[in-house]
Backbone:
C-alpha cells in the first residue's frame, strides 16, 4: 500500500495566484469522481461511528460522516481520521486569538489553586505575564472597569470577597469554571514517572521502549480513552520516541506498530 499525502488547506496570500475552479472546465472530472464514490458507497457497509470524547455538537455533525467513511474503509484510516479530528479541533481553539479568550486563559493561569482573588491582584498578575498585552492596551493598562467590561460577555461579574479582615471587590474561581471548560482547551497536566511500577514489575516500558507515567486516564478529564482502540477503561500514559499516548496495556504493541508504519511525525496533523 502506498503512503498517502495529506494536504492542508490554508488562506491564500495577497497576490497569490491559484487555479480557479470553473464548472464548465472541471465538471466532467467531478462527475467521474462522483460516480466512483457512489459506486463505493453502494457496496460499503457504513454504520454510526463512535466519536472520541471532546468531539461534540457542531463538531460532531461535521466529523461523524468523515469518520464513518474512514471506519468503512478500515485499515489505518479509522485511527488516522480520529487523530486528525482531535488535532485539528485543538488547533482551531488555539488559533482563536481574541483578547476575550486570551483573558480567560491568562486569568486561569494566574488563579492557580486559589478560590478568590481581589481585582487589584488579578490586574497586577496580568501585567506581569510574559508577552502580556494587558499592561498596554491602546496606550493604557487594563483597569478594573476594563476588566469587568471584557468579562461581562462571559457572564462573569466582580463581587465583594473576603481577604483576611478586608472585603475588596474581586472575582471567584467558581464563576470562571464553566467558561474555562467552554472556551479553553484543558489545562496541560504534568505527569511524573511511576517509581512504583518500576519496582513492582508492572513497567510497560519493556513492551514499547516507553516511559510509563503514573496517572491513569480516568484521573484526568482531558483524554478518557485509549488512543488505539478508542475505548475507555484502565489506560496509562506512555512515551514512545517523541510521542506520548494513552493506551491499554494490551493495545501497546498494535499502537507502536501503527505508529511506525504511518510515521505520523511527518503528517501535518501531528503536533509535538
Residues:
Amino acid at each position: 500500500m502506498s503512503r498517502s499525502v495529506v494536504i492542508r488547506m490554508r488562506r491564500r496570500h495577497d497576490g497569490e495566484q491559484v487555479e480557479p475552479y470553473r464548472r464548465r472546465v472541471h465538471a466532467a472530472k467531478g462527475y467521474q469522481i462522483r460516480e466512483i464514490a457512489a459506486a463505493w458507497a453502494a457496496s460499503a457497509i457504513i454504520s454510526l461511528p463512535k466519536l472520541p470524547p471532546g468531539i461534540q455538537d457542531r463538531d460532531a455533525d461535521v466529523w461523524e460522516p468523515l469518520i464513518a467513511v474512514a471506519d468503512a474503509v478500515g485499515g489505518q484510516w479509522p485511527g488516522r481520521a480520529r487523530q486528525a479530528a482531535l488535532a485539528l479541533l485543538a488547533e482551531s481553539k488555539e488559533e482563536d486569538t481574541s483578547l476575550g479568550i486570551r483573558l480567560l486563559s491568562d486569568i486561569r493561569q494566574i488563579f492557580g489553586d486559589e478560590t478568590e482573588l481581589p481585582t487589584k491582584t488579578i490586574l497586577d498578575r496580568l501585567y506581569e505575564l510574559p508577552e502580556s498585552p494587558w499592561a498596554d492596551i491602546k496606550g493604557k493598562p487594563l483597569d478594573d472597569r476594563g476588566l469587568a467590561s471584557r468579562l461581562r460577555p462571559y457572564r462573569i461579574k466582580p463581587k465583594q470577597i473576603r481577604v483576611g479582615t478586608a472585603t475588596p471587590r474581586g472575582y471567584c474561581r467558581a464563576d470562571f469554571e464553566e467558561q474555562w471548560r467552554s472556551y479553553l482547551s484543558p489545562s496541560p497536566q504534568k505527569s511524573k514517572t511511576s517509581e512504583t511500577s518500576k519496582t513492582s514489575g508492572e513497567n510497560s516500558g519493556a513492551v514499547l521502549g516507553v516511559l510509563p507515567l503514573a496517572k491513569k486516564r480516568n484521573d484526568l478529564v482531558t483524554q478518557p480513552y485509549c488512543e488505539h482502540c478508542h475505548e475507555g477503561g484502565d489506560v496509562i500514559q506512555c512515551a514512545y520516541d517523541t510521542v506520548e499516548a494513552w493506551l491499554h496495556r494490551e493495545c501497546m504493541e498494535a499502537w507502536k506498530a501503527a505508529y511506525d508504519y504511518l510515521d505520523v511525525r511527518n503528517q501535518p496533523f501531528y503536533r509535538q
